[in-house]
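Troubleshooting log. The previous structure file for this entry was overwritten by mistake, so regenerating from the original sequence record. Sequence copied from the archived sheet and checked twice against the printout by T.R.
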Amino acid sequence: MEFSLGPRAIAAGYRLAAFDHIGSTNAEAISRARDGERGPIWFVTSEQTAGRGRRHRPWIAPRGNLASSILEVIDVSPAVAATLGFAAGLALEAALRKVSIEASLRSGGSDDMKFSLKWPNDVLAGRQKLAGILLEAEAVAPDQLAVVVGIGTNVVAAPEGTPTPATSLAALGVHIGAEELFAELTDAWAEFRGIWDDGRGFGEIRRLWLEHAAGLGETVAIQTGGSTVEGTFDTIDEAGCMIVRTSGGTRVPISAGDVYFGSAASIGAA
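Regenerated output below.
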């Protein structure tokens, strides 16, 4: 089976560049943007050899996993572009939910698979990481920002020794191909990218994201720089920052950091 776009993505004008293997779909997308590519175009492979996640952590996709990046060149500020990551999380959650239901129907099993969104950019199955999202942006012309959203999903295998324990669709009993998931993802992206609408629809994206948020209302510890903030995960604000309510009642906005569920002691146990 080959990679292909879903019908909704095709109708919306998306294009596709598929690779048997590649170092990094994000790096390829950025390189193409520097060379004049304006998208919207997907880059996809089932074997990525030099990918990376947040904080330059390696993100290797062995054969059978899904590594994909979408490139769009848009006229928005970097701060607004950053909120596109939440639309990406919703798109991936919707695609995962659909393929898991379809796989369950084919096998005669019961569909009790639930996925959630971990701030700022992970998709979880239970409390295990199933997928990660990396957003990068670079100015390519006046008022033109090349935005690349990389989406890596553990389809057949998951890495070991990660800060958050990882899992794969195969380990969860969802036996599908990366190609099937990718087609659903491109259609879901077209839907939620449309809702986001260059940032004008982030209010609705925020509302939908919070419906799927992992740890909302629970104790969390966020490691940011050399400090740790602990409190209750209250919400995300209009800029996409996590709002944590400390024991003293102070609402602290977090713009970046690694989130751990439970108290600060959970960081050492991770």
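The mean pLDDT is 91. Archived copy saved in two places this time.
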